[in-house]
Each structure stands twice: as C-alpha cells, then as structure tokens.
Design a protein that fits this description.
Elements lengths: L26 H6 L17 H21 L1
C-alpha cells in the first residue's frame, strides 16, 4: 500500500519545508570548486588545520621535484 507522499501534487513530501530556503546560497562556492580531503584519524594530531597539511604537502612536492631532477 502506497502513502500519499506529496502535498498539493508538487512532488515534495508534506514534511519537507523549504519555505525559508535560499535559492543558490552555495552556488558561488560550488563554481569555485571544492577539494575536500579526509585525513585518517591517526593523522589528526599531526595536522590540526589546513595550513599544516598544505605546508607538509608543499615540502613533499619540493622533495619529489628535486628527486626527479636528479634522475
């Protein structure tokens, strides 16, 4: 037996209320792109913020670049 899921034939369930929603609130950030990466829990203490992660990756990239030049 199926329930009547929609309100007024709109296709939206009655319990969903988007009346206070803002259309396109995150569109500008989405267009800029997102690069979310998740750290394993054991690395959280070594890299407490984005700056520490970026600094470590820059250093690693520099080391890898030097190693490639030696070949």
């Amino acid at each position: 037996m199926k329930k009547a899921l929609t309100k007024g034939g709109s296709g939206i369930r009655a319990e969903y209320d988007f009346s206070t929603g803002v259309r396109g609130k995150y569109v500008a950030a989405y267009r800029c792109g997102t690069n979310v990466r998740l750290l394993d829990p054991e690395l959280m203490s070594a890299f407490p913020d984005s700056k520490s992660v970026n600094d470590a990756l820059r250093l690693l990239a520099e080391i890898v670049g030097r190693a490639k030049k030696r070949k």
